[in-house]
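Re: your question from the hallway

Yes, I did run it. Sequences:
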Amino acid sequence: MLAVERPGPTMTTPTQPATDTHTHVPVDRGRWWRWAATLVLLGALLAPAALDRDGLPLSTYPMYAHTRDSVVDIVAVQARASGADIELSIGEIAATRDPLVAQSYLDDRAAAGRADEVCREIADRIGDDHPDGVDVVVARERHRVVDRARGQSSLEERDVLARCSS
Amino acid sequence: MTTTAPRAHTDDGPGALARLGEWLDRPAPAERLAALRIATGGFSLVYFLVVNGEFRRLANLPSADFEPVGVAHLLSTPLGGSALLVVYLATLVLGVAFVLGAGFRVTGPAYALGVLFLASYHSSFGQMLHFEHVFTLHLLVLAVSPAADAWAWPGRRPPGPPATRYGWPIRLLAIITVTTYALAGLAKLRYGGAGWLDGETLRNHIAWSTTRLDLLGAARPPLARALLDAGWLLTPLAIGSVLIELAAPLALASRRFRTGWAVAIIVMHTAIAATMLVWFPYQGLGFALLPLFAAERPFLRRG
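Structure:
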């Protein structure tokens, strides 16, 4: 328990002479223990930065710390049913509500050569809502992100990684 | 003739180490530590209830996606759906006991370890989620502190006067909070370099977040475009955010600075949410900052 509180003797011992080389200096062990534990905690918190190794629960906290170019490759998904584009939700794309998780899911699988698998999973998820069939395309796209964020045309390149239907 | 033991301070006043020691040992009421137990335990409990869908998703992922992080390294393969459900539900039950302070010597550490596992497991499928680090660390400290000496169920004898054993764990929680912010500031200088401060990196992160959300069919951040159009604001905002993070340890030293810094942190997280739709709830709602303040006072006044 973090409940070290031993009052111990006080730091002053007025009855002992200054010249006594055998003076017993009382030690507040609780205080030393607290200092040691505090330093260990601080060392543990700083260790990931010293080792440049991110982890959990100890971290370098690198969120948005790296530089990012204004032209970015991103894995995107398009779907069509009955001749019209379908607007997919994050949940339909990656079975999550978290956009960070969804993008990581797309990027990691595409990087691992598993775009076909992603394509089929998405087609299965949305297939029930489109009984006439649905076409899904997974593509790596290169966008000028500042233009995109301003609502302007942004696509520079598009490389289709997988196509599938349900 | 009288003398003293080795001096802890100079004639000009206490030295830095003595002041630090005095700060670490400063007594606090049991209710303050209990308030932090209830706030942090309550927050984490609600958090894991809200993200329950994430654990359903993880249960259905193939083993090939498993990249263990933290204590999840203890597993060679991901948990089966039933086992994950049992761990998840057991952690929630322990969380209720943690908040109540019931059987805290057992339920406190058990809940903190449960959260450590769930947070590690949550980040073990390719995306490190930094939302969960600070409350996990706070729970680990609270779990081994006398945080259930007050405001616990069932009630016990009164906890007694303010004491170091209640104050010191609170200092550790505060150290965790400010150190994580300082590390985040250092990371921007380390990984982004001086380029992070000229606003271009911040601009590209905001634009990237908007593009990502756009392509995923989600709503755009409400203030992203306005900020990108007012480009002159990006440099001061980038410098300001790094300064706020690096200045975090000063919040331990100065009471006046502490309040201003806490307000700046809340504003910063709100601005990040409005421009990138990235929300750190434990920090943005102020829970992470509570160890810097007398968290029990609002409840005592009402009582």
